[in-house]
Amino acid sequence: DFMNTIGLEKVWQHNKKLAEQFYRGLQKIPQVEILSPQQEEYRTSLISFKLKNVAYRKAGAYLTEKKRMRVRVVPEAHLDGIRISLHVYNNEEQVERLLVEINKLARGKVF
């Protein structure tokens, strides 16, 4: 009922907008390898990436335990990455805060 009240198309547009904001932010971080498709039409509101200079489990633990951000580490199929799932409950400020923390990790400012 909640989703239908908002409207599924509005929810999708919101989620996609946040995912694209996040994706574009990741592209600006040299130590990030984006695992999600390069072609926008194939991307969803789930964006996966890895840091070239920080082990994915260590980065995931930092984001979840130290910064209280909800991320998922993805060891399956040897992806060894982190997945961010953006949804109606998230906003642009949260995306920016997450990008700030990923930037810190990438620049070696955390460990």
Keywords:
single chain; 4-stranded antiparallel beta sheet; 4 strands; globular
What would your notes on this structure say?
It is built from four helices and four strands, in the order ααββαββα. The protein has helices spanning 2-6, 8-27, 56-66, 92-106; strands at 32-34, 46-51, 72-74, 81-85. It has a four-stranded antiparallel β-sheet, with helices on one face.
Strand content: 15-25%
In whole angstroms, the N-to-C terminal distance is 44 Å
Low-confidence stretches: none
Order of helices and strands: HHEEHEEH
| Number of strand elements | 4
Average the pLDDT over all residues and give the rounded result.
Answer: 97
Q: What structural class do the secondary elements suggest?
A: alpha+beta
Major sheet summary line: 4 strands, antiparallel
Assembly level? single chain
Give the strand line-up of the largest sheet: 1-2-4-3
Level of helix content?
Answer: 40-55%
Number of helices: 4
Q: Which geometry do the CA atoms define?
A: globular
Rounded Rg:
14 Å
Give a brief description.
The protein is α+β, with helices and mostly antiparallel strands and 111 residues long. The protein is 46% helix and 15% strand. Helix 2 (8-27) packs parallel to helix 4.
Topology:
Elements: H1 2-6, H2 8-27, E1 32-34, E2 46-51, H3 56-66, E3 72-74, E4 81-85, H4 92-106
Antiparallel strand pairs: 1-2, 2-4, 3-4
Helix pairs in contact: 2-4
